[in-house]
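Appendix C: a fully annotated inverse folding record. The material below is reproduced so that readers can follow the format used throughout the book. The structure is listed first as tokens, followed by the designed sequence.
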């Protein structure tokens, strides 16, 4: 039906056009196309948004589910990455992309994307309160550190530091474990585990998943010695429970550069790396960051 209407419109234009224009048809602007990968994301997924047909765009902006999209030039196209938080409600979410071309003309595309539920493991425990509750001082400390991290995630550096694929931060076998698992202690649900854990020997090198700027080096109650990398455009990766940190705040590191070594600092039962991915405040499954279809 649409093809037929387009044909009729084209025929009409030909009929109405003066003979000179018929001989040299005007160049048609490229069709604006927006593609989301994956098309039906789950809770905790990273989404890659690709905008084609806008190579001469002066500006590309948009939003997905109320989160603004930070576009960057990507070959002849434009792209953005956006995260679906681990606890985002499964539903249809709206997206919108607006383009202003070199001549100042505006084009817009809108659509919806279905956020699918994902089942995470749950563990129910009954423990004496003394083992569960923090003392007031630790409580205050942990809460101040959580506030500091939230302030970091709310900071969007306008520059993109990362490029190409994201690499695993530690050279051990297996995909890691624990993303999204939740403990219900004495009937109270705790926060879901927001990262992936890899068990490794103390002293195993921990490397940057991609190029970024060291935004934070800290020694936190839960995370122990940690490094947060700012990859730009609101994307962060965190490396926790480190035995030793080898970088300083403000340094720019490349993918694969050593940040420190595996340890068991903070709240940890044994040496392991807790690796966390934040797209703004959205807690993202690292596996979906590694799977991003980025080629540049
Ligand atoms: Zn962990």
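Designed amino acids, in order:
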């Amino acid at each position: 039906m649409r093809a037929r209407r387009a044909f009729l419109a084209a025929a009409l234009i030909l009929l109405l056009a003066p003979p000179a224009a018929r001989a040299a048809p005007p160049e048609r602007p490229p069709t604006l196309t927006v593609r989301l990968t994956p098309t039906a994301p789950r809770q905790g997924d990273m989404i890659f948004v690709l905008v084609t047909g806008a190579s001469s765009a002066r500006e590309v902006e948009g939003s997905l589910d109320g989160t603004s999209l930070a576009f960057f030039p990507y070959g002849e196209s434009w792209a953005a990455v956006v995260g679906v938080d681990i606890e985002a409600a499964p539903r249809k979410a709206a997206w919108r992309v607006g383009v202003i071309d070199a001549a100042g003309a505006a084009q817009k595309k809108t659509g919806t994307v279905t956020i699918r539920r994902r089942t995470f493991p749950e563990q129910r425990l009954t423990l004496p309160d003394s083992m569960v509750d923090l003392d007031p001082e630790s409580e205050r400390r942990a809460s101040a550190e959580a506030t500091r991290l939230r302030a970091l995630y709310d900071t969007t550096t306008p520059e993109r530091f990362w490029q190409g694929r994201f690499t695993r931060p530690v050279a051990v076998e297996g995909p890691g474990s624990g993303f999204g698992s939740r403990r219900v202690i004495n009937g109270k649900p705790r926060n879901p585990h927001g990262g992936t854990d890899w068990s490794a020997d103390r002293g195993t090198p921990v490397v940057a998943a991609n190029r970024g700027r060291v935004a934070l080096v800290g020694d936190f109650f839960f995370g122990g010695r940690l490094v947060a990398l700012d990859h730009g455009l609101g994307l962060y990766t965190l490396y926790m429970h480190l035995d030793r940190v080898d970088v300083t705040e403000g340094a720019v590191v490349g993918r694969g550069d050593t940040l420190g070594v595996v340890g068991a600092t903070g709240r940890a039962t044994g040496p392991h790396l807790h690796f966390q991915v934040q797209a703004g405040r959205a807690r993202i499954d690292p596996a979906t960051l590694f799977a991003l279809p980025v080629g540049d």
